[in-house]
């Protein structure tokens, strides 16, 4: 399998930050993304404190799976413990994305359980476990998110947004987009005073087999 070069990875990561910011899924200094180089297990991650929509490739930093700085002039994102904890447990995951999607986060704050009410959500985001609030940037939060991520592409963080993961960058980004789209539809239905109609579980299983997911 041909993997992306490090320069390609860095370019893709800064583009992800621009896209997430343009979609209103994060503020300029919020959110982070990383990519694990499959050949080396080294991780490229966005830096801490910089304005994410204006990042350049040279602003990214490389760390190992213990969080040690290998390359770069800035500190890695303070949420690096989330990223490395997931990579240690999920060898099938090469990208981790953390954003603050307003609708998805708002539903968690309101105590509304995420349900996959759209076709795309049923296929890609079948479940979204919630991690209670844990102080940001701690190994405790990283371990809690990694545990919740076993068997799921999405983890919701109480008062703190969402984490999505994927085999590649595009899968993690798509999961974040689908999560927020589904949350918006849920919000609209709730505002109209109705419970969103869900896709029957048997149909979800058939669809997943059809799409080989």
Please describe the topology of this protein.
Elements: H1 6-22, E1 32-36, E2 43-45, E3 61-63, E4 69-71, H2 80-89, E5 95-99, H3 102-109, H4 119-124, E6 130-131, H5 139-148, E7 154-157, E8 161-166, H6 169-191, H7 201-210
Parallel strand pairs: 6-7
Antiparallel strand pairs: 1-2, 1-5, 2-3, 3-4, 5-8, 7-8
Helix pairs in contact: 2-5, 3-6
Could you name the key traits of this structure?
single chain; 213 residues; alpha+beta; L-fuculose-1-phosphate Aldolase; eight-stranded mixed beta sheet; 8 strands
Describe what this molecule looks like in 3D.
Strand 6, helix 5 (139-148) and strand 7 form a beta-alpha-beta unit. An eight-stranded mixed beta sheet has the order 4-3-2-1-5-8-7-6, with helices on both faces. With 213 residues, it is an alpha+beta fold. Helix 3 (102-109) crosses helix 6 (169-191). It has helices spanning 6-22, 80-89, 102-109, 119-124, 139-148, 169-191, 201-210, and strands at residues 32-36, 43-45, 61-63, 69-71, 95-99, 130-131, 154-157, 161-166. The chain starts with 5 loop residues before the first helix and ends with a helix. The protein has seven helices and eight strands. The protein is 39% helix and 15% strand. It has a single domain (6-210), classed as L-fuculose-1-phosphate Aldolase.
